[in-house]
Amino acid sequence: MARLAKYLEAAESDSTRRSYASAIRHFEVECKGLLPSTADAIARYLADHAATLAINTLRQRLAALSRWHTDQGFPDPTKAALVRQVLKGIRSVHSVREKRARPLELAALQQIDQWLDAAICNAQRTGDHPASLRHTRDRSLILLGFWRGFRSDELVNLRVENTEVTPGQGMTCYLGRSKGDRQREGRVFRCPALSRLCPVTAFNAWVSLAGLTEGPVFRKIDRWGHVAEESLHVNSLIPLLRSLFAESGVESPEKYSSHSMRRGFAGWARASGWDIKELMEYVGWKDVKSAMRYLDASDSSLQARFEQGLTALAPAAQLPPPPLLLLTELTGIAHPPAESAGNLDS
Q1: Are residues 110 and 76 located together in one domain of the fold?
Q2: Strand partners, 215
Q3: Are residues 112 and 83 in the same domain?
Q4: Where does a domain end: 31, 59, 93?
Q5: What is the pTM for the complete model shown?
Q6: Do 144 and 259 reside in the same domain of the chain?
Q7: Nearest to 138 by CA among 196, 224, 209
Q8: Dihedral sign computed on CA atoms, order 286, 290, 295, 297
Q9: Which residues contact 286 (CB under 8 A, 6 or more apart)?
Q10: Which has more pLDDT, 14 or 194?
């Protein structure tokens, strides 16, 4: 029985279990909802929180309630037509633009890397080993996160023993689970060695300095420079990155998140000529809709596309200038003949 429970637990990520448990707790404890529930009760629950919760949050709450009823052997009330109609109405009335993290552009990545390089050199010169460890880890994390387009959970789940480096060529990272891997088949991610901003060089520097041979790649480091056995928590990446961006002088660090690296790489790849198919394959998107959420077309590129289409037109013909109009035609006022004007002057 313990073995069965172990495999059932492994079939679902920790983050999914936590979010579902939180949703059930919100429904039962905070909203005094009863389980098993009815379609009418769930529809009222959605209506009561439509103005305060985002539509994606409401969908997540429905998914959690659906799972609870299915697991307990009860009919699933979230699939009722009433619930679907209420959700559709909420989407219409409370339609808001989805908030997205600012993409980390290549120039900002270079600025951060240069700051980290200087900080590492300064820490080594002054013998500040804890600072040297933190900056070396952060450099590896941000360069690998950008060039691989990793999600935050993929970064924290990387393990040293599942990462292989080929000097001068690149590295491969195996992940047994990730958000896009619904069937838990595992996937190998490849990343090339680069002449500048190289994620492979940064990874080797971090693993060597920390003396890592197995276990999580990116770990906690305390104030005394002790490297923890466990990985960074996924929720710690956003404050870590924003702090790093602020220290390196990146403008408006609060607008960035862990998704900024993924969005930044996607934008860079598209601007560099990658087609959508190879970008999806490299990053791990399963459908075009998911990929397009990460791609922004700038106004300048949009203008360039339109202007490119106008080049097929023949040059505009040079038209003769319009004839000069008489004062009468301009004003509509008739002037007296010259002799009449002379008589008036006399």
Answers
A1: no
A2: none
A3: no
A4: 93
A5: 0.70
A6: yes
A7: 209
A8: positive
A9: 180, 280
A10: 194
Alpha helices in the chain (DSSP H): 2-10, 14-25, 39-48, 55-71, 81-93, 106-126, 129-148, 152-157, 199-210, 237-247, 259-271, 276-283, 288-292, 299-310, 327-331, 338-345
245 domain-assigned: yes
* Cα 190 off chain centre by: 20
- How many angstroms separate the CA atoms of 180 and 208, rounded? 31
Write down the pLDDT at residue 285.
Answer: 73
Q: Are 139 and 205 in contact (CB under 8 A)?
A: yes
197 shares its domain with 89: no
225 in Cβ contact with 236 (< 8 Å): no
Cα separation of 346 and 341, whole Å?
9
pLDDT band (50, 70, 90) for residue 340: very low
The number of beta carbons lying within 10 Å of the beta carbon of residue 54 is 13
Whether residues 152 and 80 fall in one domain: no
Q: What percent of the chain has pLDDT over 90?
A: 56
- Whether residues 89 and 119 fall in one domain: no
The per-residue pLDDT for 321 is: 64
Kindly report, residue by residue over 40-58, the tens digit of the pLDDT.
Answer: 999 999 999 998 888 889 9
Number of domains within the chain: 2
